[in-house]
Amino acid sequence: MVTNSSSTSMPDCAHIPQPYDGPTRKEVLLQRRQYVSPGIFTFYKDPLLIVEGHMQYLWDETGKRYLDGIGGIVTVSVGHCHPHIVEAVKNQIGKLFHTTTIYLHPHIGRLAKLLAEHFPTDSGLEVTYFTNSGTESNEVAVLMARLHTGHHDVISLRNGYHGGSQVTMGLTGMGTWKFPLPQAAGVHHAMPGYCYRCPLGLEYPTCNVKCAQDVAQLIDYQTSGKIAAFIAEPIQGAGGVVDPPESYFKIIQDIVHAHGGLFIADEVQTGFGRTGTHFWGFEHDDVIPDIVTMAKGIGNGAPLGAVTTRMDIAQCLKQKLHFNTFGGNPVAMIQGLATLEIIDRDRIQQNATTVGAHLKQRLKDLQTRQPLIGDVRGRGLLLGVELVRNPDTKEPATTEAIEVLERTRTAGLLIGRGGVYGNVLRVKPPMCVTIKDVDFLVDTLDAALSLP
Ligand SMILES: Cc1ncc(COP(=O)(O)O)c(C=O)c1O
Predict the structure, then answer these.
(1) CATH 3.90.1150.10 segments of the chain
(2) 3-state DSSP helix/strand/coil percent for the chain, to nearest 5?
(3) Hey, which of 59, 254, 342, 413 would disulfide with 444, CB 3.0 to 4.6 Å?
(4) If you average pLDDT over residues 279-287, what whole number do you get?
């Protein structure tokens, strides 16, 4: 590791956190270990206790402030406890908490309309089914694709992540996140457009994007020739910010349609302006999906998900009763509405573009000085830094990535980690971050990579 890193301090913040008077960290940890499922994991050798948040910052029980560089795993889109959203939710909770969709309520239609207005004109993407999570959204999307097409097989991508239920674990293309499942039958994993580690050992653009062309063979060899759907994240999130080359998705979409399938874009991480120059991740790829799934950033931290599609596809759910107790809940709807209002009003997408471009450039500069950095990729405020021990062999620097997370935490910066080898640093802060914040982020990373 090299030396000579510069260092800036975290920008000032006017918010004063309330003094913490809850149980001690030790008590919280003990209760968690004794009573909460051990299947729910924590980050860091010494798990971090977070007790307050304001915009891009979080505080622990001692009053120490952190820059949130991962946004609650890409969920806090416009800032923790954004005052406009807090106010809107408070008002709604005092009026009506819950009824279910068996009665009319104005918010559900308002949010569905507002979402429809954010999709490309003439895309036909205008009817929405609300859920509580990304997992549920992907479940509903695959169900609709199977009902609408009458086919069963689904193609997803290696490295992809689509959720924790049985069907979505089947779609997920990373072994770490999968239990052995019979439900994975009928799911086939295609090659991701992972140029840094090309699955075919080729180079873009002379490769002719063979990884995408291969989907045709996959369908011919492994299915009856007809499929229900292809599902993918426009940029893979948990898979380590894998951003496929231009034309990758266009090639796949044509193949999928030719085989009777629907194209599902999982925008759980990439939606809502996060990729900067476009509101949706799929817009970078010159495709119009048949179904779009959302969660996370849609509600700035609310348990809210959505599936938007065309009316001709949405009709299929009328074949039986299909019901979701909390989907469309008025409190969740108001949180979604207030979040979208802020994204539009405060030019959040523009901020993701400008601050994201500055951040990416600074990370690229860092790459020239820090030999552990093998690749910097992503768009807007959805960036990844892949650490490798050797630039030629690309041996994953997984233990180093774990250590970098520990060091940045100590310095007041929280980032994530992902990728098949767990060696990709994930940088996805709330989209209200400033240039000064990301300068602090890069300098902190520089210092963490510079220590022996
Ligand atoms: C791309 C993507 N799809 C789906 C999901 C599942 O969402 P949830 O955890 O809300 O069920 C996630 C969660 O990380 C995700 O990143």
Answers:
(1) 25-69+348-450
(2) 40, 15, 45
(3) 413
(4) 96
Distances from the Cα of 132 to the Cα of 116, 136, 174, 430, angstroms? 19, 7, 23, 21
Which protein residue has the closest C-alpha to ligand 1 atom 8?
Answer: 134
Compute the distance between CA of residue 405 and CA of residue 440 in angstroms, rounded to an integer: 15
Range name among 174-188, 317-331, 403-417 with the lowest pLDDT average: 174-188
Where in the chain are all domains bearing CATH 3.40.640.10?
Answer: 84-345
- Give 267 Cα–ligand 1 centroid separation in angstroms: 9
DSSP letters, 39-79, are TS--SSSSPPPEEEEEBTEEEETT--EEEESSHHHHT-SS-
Ligand 1 pocket test, candidate residues 40, 296, 324, 326, most atoms within 8 A of CB: 296
pLDDT band at 210 (very low <50, low <70, confident <90, very high): very high
Mutate to test the pocket of ligand 1, among 130, 159, 162, 417 (most ligand atoms within 8 A of CB): 162
CA of 6 to the centre of ligand 1 (A): 36
Ligand 1 center to residue 161 CA distance, Å?
Answer: 7
Name which of 285, 266, 12 is nearest 160 in CA terms.
Answer: 266
How far is Cα 359 from Cα 383, in angstroms, rounded to an integer?
9
State the closest ligand 1 atom to the C-alpha of 303, by its place in the atom list counted from 1.
10
Q: What is the pLDDT of residue 353?
A: 98
Q: How far is the CA of 68 from the centre of ligand 1 (A)?
A: 19
In this prediction, residues 241-260 reach a mean pLDDT of 98
The pTM of this model reads: 0.97
Architecture of domain 84-345: 3-Layer(aba) Sandwich (3.40)
Atom 4 in ligand 1: residue holding the nearest Cα: 162
Which ligand 1 atom sits nearest the alpha carbon of residue 305? 10
Give the mean model confidence (pLDDT) for residues 354-367: 98
Query: Which ligand 1 atom sits nearest the alpha carbon of residue 136?
Result: 11
What integer pLDDT is reported at residue 179 of this predicted model? 84
Distance in Å, CA 61 to ligand 1 centroid: 28
pLDDT bin (cut points 50, 70, 90) of residue 246 is very high
* Confidence label for 283 from pLDDT (cuts 50, 70 and 90): very high
CA angle, corner 333, sides to 164 and 239, nearest 5?
A: 30
The CATH architecture assigned to 25-69+348-450 reads: Alpha-Beta Complex (3.90)
Find the mean pLDDT for residues 398-425.
97
